[in-house]
Amino acid sequence: MMQECRLTNFQKRHLMDCIKRGDALPIQCNPTSSKQPELAKPTSPPKPCLPVSLLARPHLRPAKVCQAGTAYTRDKFKPKATRDLEREKQRLQNILATGKDKEEHKPQQKPVQKKEEEEIPEPDRFEELVNEIRERKEFLEEMVALGQDKKYRGIILTEISQKLREMEIIDKNRNKEAREAMATNLPVGS
Predict the structure, then answer these.
(1) Which of 15, 149, 157, 165 is in Cβ range 3.0-4.6 Å of 144 for a Cys bridge?
(2) pTM for this one?
(3) Half-sphere exposure in the Cβ direction for 90 (13 Å, CA)
(4) Phi, psi of 127 (to 5 degrees)
């Protein structure tokens, strides 16, 4: 039977010693040493694993515990003066002396002065277009310096041509208005 179980020589010797002494056969036998196996220390039963949602919920305390604490004790009421009594005395003295309630001079808020005098003139659309064209030319020069001009050249030139077209329209409208203004100012008979 020992040969069928494939026991080590140490295990076989240990079992034969137990039989010779007349002791009960051991339940467990260490395979390579004569060291006695340590008895397992009794451990507390494992705590049940609770889902995270239950652990995150605050624990409820019994009512007696809450009432035993200071949560239910009220602070003693301490009245405070809600108005200035000296000022009230002065006001009543003025009413009795003059028959009228003298209004107190409250600090008046100074109205914020609007800076209408310093109005910024609305920028001229023609000047805006000139600045935009200048910015696009500068951008294109930067891209040429970086070697990226092929990527942006078509887009920038298209935008510049659109701005120039818009400037031409504005110029025509201004010339037309100038001619009309000159025509109205000149006498009809000339």
Answers:
(1) 149
(2) 0.35
(3) 8
(4) -70, -35
